Amino acid sequence: MVFPEYRPRRMRSTASFRSLIRETHLSADQFIYPIFVMPGKKIREEIPSMPGVFRVSVDMLAKESKECLDLGINSVILFGLPEKKDSMGSGAHAKDGIIQRAVRELKNKHPQLMVVTDVCLCEYTDHGHCGCLIDKKVDNDATLEILAKTALSHAQAGVDMVAPSDMMDGRIAEIRAALDENNFESIPIMSYAVKYASAFYGPFRDAADCAPQFGDRRSYQMDPANSREALREATLDVDEGADILMVKPAVAYLDIISKLKDEFDLPIAAYHVSGEYAMIKAAAANGWIDEEKVMLETLLSIKRAGADIIITYYAKEIAKLLRK
Ligand code: PBG
Asked: Residue 120 C-alpha to ligand 1 middle, in angstroms?
């Protein structure tokens, strides 16, 4: 059927009709809200390059996440700023480390909140790389053991799910084994399976103070030019025991989200990262775009591409908008 018999505009004439045939919906319970935790007491400081996002001390966490729960956002992902950094990132798995304390505090105050932790070393190493160094190179196999120890320490603190973001080869299997050996077989792994070496992480690195002190992350994070490699990375993680596959960043990689959704039957997560958030904020602050509409359209595009779960700094704002 072609024009004039078929007229697509017929079904766009009213708001009710448009909503009747709408294919994609956003819902608060599919968002994960990232929270940066820092040492100290009664601290809640705004991150300059991420307006509306705060670094909070452990004692402020319960309040920060209560706001999420009240808005129907059931999950948070934690990133930690340790008191001290060292070459091996030992703060990442310290029993009384910042994340371990944060997890205990949150599970104690809000048992119903789903607490996810980022498992990586870059926030804990003094050189800012995601693994430990041998001869100034990030050593894959030596890093695996530290990552597994880190994930295990999060599990012992009571975390609901771990999310390794380091991009070392073989880390999913290593973490799965460490969890299983210690009776944490029911804790799922959300793998940052396809994580690109992206310039969109800039504001996050300010927030978490984790920019590499030399070189860059291109020897472990993926080349933005590659898409078939994404399938290989995801296949490996599935075989090693990942429960959820993540693509990161989101908007510049919608094709990758869509590919993974077609190829795999695991839930797909997408990380709408700091730079993607900051760009909208900056343009909106200049009055160049309508923030609400652009936020909605952006998150909708991520969902439409195939993401089941979206990690976003906009979680609270979009949840508020969806309530209206
Ligand atoms: C840690 C990590 C990073 C992000 C999430 N986990 C930074 C990086 O890899 O450099 C970025 C998230 C964001 O930009 O919002 N490896």
From this structure: 9
Indicate the top mutation candidate among 37, 120, 162 to test ligand 1's pocket, ranked by most ligand atoms within 8 A of CB. Answer: 120
Determine if ligand 1 sits within 6 Å of the CB of residue 130. yes
Is-catalytic flag, 261? Answer: no
Q: Is the distance from the beta carbon of residue 174 to the nearest atom of ligand 1 less than 6 Å?
A: no
How many angstroms does the Cα of residue 14 sit away from the middle of ligand 1? Answer: 42
Q: Is the entire prediction scored with pTM above 0.85?
A: yes
In the structure encoding, which two tokens stand for residue 42, read together? 């009664």
CB 71 within 8 A of CB 323: yes
Determine whether 320 is an active site residue.
Answer: no
Per-residue pLDDT band at 198 (split at 50, 70, 90): very high
Catalytic site residue from 66, 137, 248, 324: 248
Express each pLDDT in 178-196 by its tens digit: 999 999 999 999 999 999 9
203-214 pLDDT per residue, tens? 999 999 999 999
User: How far is the centre of ligand 1, averaged over its atoms, from the C-alpha of 6 (Å)?
Assistant: 48
- Give the span between the Cα atoms of 68 and 75, in whole angstroms: 8
- As a whole number, mean pLDDT of residues 10-39 equals 97
- Of the pLDDT bands very low, low, confident and very high (cuts 50, 70, 90), residue 38 is very high
| Virtual torsion, Cα 56, 57, 60, 64, nearest 10 deg | 30
Residue 147: is it exposed, middle or buried by C-beta count within 10 angstroms (0-12/13-18/19+)? Answer: buried
Count Cβ neighbours within 10 Å for each residue of 167-181 and write b for 16 or more, e otherwise.
bbeebbbbbbebbee
Report which protein residue has its CA nearest ligand 1's atom 11.
201
Pick the CATH number of 24-323 from 2.30.30.760, 3.20.20.70, 3.90.226.10, 3.90.1640.10: 3.20.20.70
